[in-house]
## 1
Amino acid sequence: MSKILTTESGAPVADNQNSASAGEYGPLLIQDQHLLEKLARFNRERIPERVVHARGSGAYGYFEVTDEVSPYTRAAFLSEVGKRTEVFLRFSTVAGNLGAGDAVRDPRGFAVKFYTEDGNYDLVGNNTPVFFIKDPVKFPDFIHSQKRDPYTGVQEADNVWDFWAHSPASTHQITWLFGDRGIPASYRHMNGYGSHTYQWVNAEGEAYWVKYHFKTNQGVRSLDGEQAAEVLGADADSHQRDLHQAIERGVFPSWTLYVQLMPVAEAADYRFNPFDLTKVWPHADHPLVKVGRLVLNRNPENVFAEVEQAAFSPNNFVPGIGPSPDKMLQGRLFAYADAQRYRLGVNHTQLPVNAPRATEARTYGRDGLGALNRGGREKNYEPNSFDGPAQTDSPLAAPVRVEGHTGTFATPAHSKDDDFFQAGELYRLMSEGEKGRLIGNIAGFLSQVSRDDIVERNLAHFRAADAEYGARLEAAVAKLRAGDED
Ligand code: HEM
């Protein structure tokens, strides 16, 4: 016999097909607890979606250290070759809402939670090594400009390009996004980047600035605009389906993690500001150092519980890893946990996907909506005389030297820094075919802008990156706009 259906309080349900009514034709009864509970419960199934990166897919797996990096960091999970740590990874698109299609031109999120013995380490990155802006105060405006217009209710080319027209530093990321890698074929076929500069500190207290690169072992595969439109039309959930089915088939996707390392003393005179998120560190200056392998081998049992309720926060560090002064990162250190307190509640850290697994949370944080029995009967204040958890005396990261007066400052430029140099370098690295597709992709979108001044401001950025890049774009946009007038 199958198990008996119950109400939320565990009482047997006698009829799950017919509501209780006053007579056969009569109105329904308020005493039908099962009906009332079922309808009320259903009304509360949705929670706020993530304000960005709402659409995503997740999987569990492990990270295995393959190369010695203990000279650079004392992070316990990276301490020896062969060491494995459980991970949960959530991939995402950025601008679309929860039900949006997957095969779109948009950066992809690449958020990894390492369940380490020193607590959870969240590395919340993207599939691009750079970003559009360099100061977090611009982030809400940026996202507003990319999402639906408050009046027309659709994404407007005018808004997208108007924001970029006023943010010259976005030229590098735009060149990346409209290039061949702008629409990944699947989450398995793209790289992941920490993007920001972070700090590593070793057992001797020596600090390094570090950038993370996860290279896909499946090979990079992307779609062009036409292919993407076809995929999107046939299967809006193409990325989710691909990841889930690959893992079900036992074809486990993997990535190799490399880092770039910069001794702290080098940062002040490096020709690019190493804390500017719109710039990369050329590999010739800081070669890739291999760290390990990340493998995804288990699908979540329940998408809502484990993927929708997953909470990643760039301020979840472990001893041996810390933040850098990158202003964007500093803004993010606040934004995520704040978003999650709103989206999931103050006790979201106790949900199984978010709670530490290789250790336990020992905090005096108590109570709040949805609290489990954290702390039980133990004292809820510190210090106490009852053997409660006490602070460690070993520093978690290295001190960072600062000087100057408080104020609002533009991100400092080093000798080679301007908003266009690296965008031009990226363009010049492309093959003729890649350049042509890049021009076509940008022109197709930029030509939809209704105002000449917005188009011109953007063209000026591409000209500043590379004269040929700008000239070709100008011609392509002019041709498309002339065509529109016919
Ligand atoms: C100041 C700039 C930024 C702000 C204020 C910001 C804010 C946010 C917020 C509020 C969320 C939703 C969090 C949640 O509800 O759980 C989010 C998600 C996310 N952001 Fe950002 N973001 C910024 C820049 C970036 C950058 C530069 C990257 C990548 C390098 C990034 C990657 C992600 C990813 C991957 C997610 C989804 C995490 C998940 O899968 O749950 N964000 N961001």
## 2
Amino acid sequence: MAITDTFKLDGKIAIITGASKGIGEAMARGLAEAGASVVVSSRKQQAVDEVAAAFRKDGLEATAIACHVGDPAQIETLVAETCAKYGGVDIIVNNAAINPVYGKMLETELSAFDKIVAVNLKGPFLLAHHAAPVMKQRGGGSIINISSTAGLRPWPGIGVYSMSKAALISMSKTLAQELGSDGIRVHTICPGLFKTKLAEALWSDDKLMNYILRETPLQRIGAPEDLAGLVVFLASEASRHLTGGTYVADGGLLSWG
Ligand SMILES: NC(=O)c1ccc[n+]([C@@H]2O[C@H](COP(=O)([O-])OP(=O)(O)OC[C@H]3O[C@@H](n4cnc5c(N)ncnc54)[C@H](OP(=O)(O)O)[C@@H]3O)[C@@H](O)[C@H]2O)c1
């Protein structure tokens, strides 16, 4: 098979959570452009309907299914409805996440702590739980968990979020060990700062931006489209010998050690 063909995702079915905007939307478009049928998911049906319609207008295959990943029943339904529509699942991108608080870790309200863990950690766990048996039946698949460089080096002010992202990296590694024999590969992507709604408080802070741009070898912050190539690679046959790995996409900021 020609190397370019190993990146193709024709016939594959992908679910992407948090795909109504930002990094999730860009990754969903990338997967669809590589040939996958994509299930665009987030909490708001109208928002995902609009994204899926835009994809279809460009000749891509997409369906919108709303799912709050903090709700276990909705995750089960997401997998069941995907299987009913497309006949299975091959690729999961656990991308939806929240960071509702900025401040010292021990000042975090318990309700915020619980919400962060439910969405950022329990959601990805449950989606993998429901999708893995389907993937196994189809001979394998790829689970891609979107963590953060904050999961590798915690940022002050976003301690609980950082903790949830560190735990997600750990979860990916364990699942990679346990699911490898079923042909299911599990990867983690750690984005650095990207210009999206989630990180607005960071990139709209001029002092912080100046610092980050000065310290980042590529002298830029990320745009959502920057991750599409990596996610297509990790979902495809081109990455067939990779599992359990953590891929940092931060313009080189963490390369200083
Ligand atoms: N932006 C950065 O600088 C950065 C850095 C490191 C890591 N990341 C990670 O990259 C991923 C994407 O972030 P982003 O920056 O693209 O965020 P974003 O622009 O804020 O988009 C978040 C997406 O998640 C959805 N969402 C929020 N809560 C949800 C829930 N409970 N259930 C299902 N969907 C939910 C939102 O749509 P609805 O409102 O319709 O639900 C939206 O589609 C996250 O895992 C984030 O932690 C981002």
## 3
Amino acid sequence: MPRPKSLFQCQSCGYSSLKWLGKCPDCNAWNSFTEEQHVSKLKGQKTARPVALSEISASTGGRHSTGIGELDRTLGGGVVKGSVVLIGGDPGIGKSTIILQSVRGLAKLGKVLYVSGEESPEQVKMRAERLQITSGEIILLPETSLEGIISVAREINPQVIVIDSIQTIFSLEISSAPGSVGQIRECATKLMFLAKKRGIPLFIIGHVTKEGAIAGPKVLEHVVDTVLYFEGDKGNPFRILRAVKNRFGPTNEIGVFEMMESGLKEVDNPSQLFLSERPTNVPGSVVTVSLEGTRPLLVEIQALVSPSSLGVPRRTALGVDYNRVNLLVAVLDKRIGMRLSGMDIYVNVVGGLSIGEPAIDMGIAGAIASSFKNQAIDTGIFTFGEVGLSGELRAVGQAGTRIGEAVKLGFKKGIVPANNLNKFEEKDIEITGVKNVEEAVEMLLF
Ligand SMILES: Nc1ncnc2c1ncn2[C@@H]1O[C@H](COP(=O)(O)OP(=O)(O)O)[C@@H](O)[C@H]1O
Ligand SMILES: [Mg+2]
């Protein structure tokens, strides 16, 4: 049977088709198809031998510290040998910086091959000087051809490989341009085989497209073991590194950093940081506790409710799910009788954090209620709980951990779901269990 010689691939999701298409049927992107050469991967491949599970010995001691506690935490307790880690984020957010800083710890493993396809060795050197990194174990390779990188890696036998960035690397075996789906997949896969075979960690830096996907897209996320993603906005020095996928640790684990002249500095007490600029006696501000991975984080949620001058009122959600905000507005309207339908509503999580957990529902609802009634909530109170459609407050996981964090920061009173009451033991705090949003709002705005 004759094989197709070329395929058309969507550059935003990797969908392939034999014909050129104007619109991708998978991700609905327009004009995203380009021609890529089809390479048969099966030639000369060895088949694996089946092994009994009991015969396999897995060593647990294979983790290595990067020398940066917050990075180790997001990786699930250090980097695993033979693992492939993708670090994604907007340009200028600090991807090259964190890798260069972690090289200080990684150099203890041996030689670190730093492949720089974007910057000249002089530029990397300038950054290293600014970050005060002087290790002689770092070997810079200004190379963009995959074959060149692999041959250098074979020659010098590094113990860690860093690719900065995957979008600049291309394989001579594929005719499409660097940065295209085919190139990125081919290069990432070949590099992954190299890392697995040698049992060394491989860090891949990847840029993010306007739409927020790691360019050369989902295909790359499937190839790697761990995906770390930098969040944070340019105007704000805080950077959050989040594990979006991790085969060796919990997902959603975060590390918090502050960007300084001398590089990324770890933030030891993020809860304190997120609450540091909290206004007192201002309506529309509530403290809630979110669990990011294994770490509880106290965050301030702000809401502003004001009568709308538009036919369709404006709703804005920053850092929380837009649909979730709409749902909570509907619950407050229907169950407590707050007339929110003609109101513009803005909700924001302070500090540039994004939270997807339903446990912060009560925080959002409380902030909206506080702003609507123009009544400030006491600064010593926090609340959490998932809100159901009938207005009930549902229990959330790890209530004890959350309350413990609030106690540490000196909170005096907590309004939590009634079903969470028996799950913790804390002394220095007054905890009230409530059954529904109405009771919770009453307690917050007593
Ligand atoms: N003196 C400095 N020179 C250059 N960048 C600096 C300096 N001080 C702090 N920075 C920060 O470093 C960032 C660049 O980080 P970098 O790791 O190169 O980003 P990425 O690799 O993600 O594109 C800049 O956005 C800036 O915030
Ligand atoms: Mg960079």
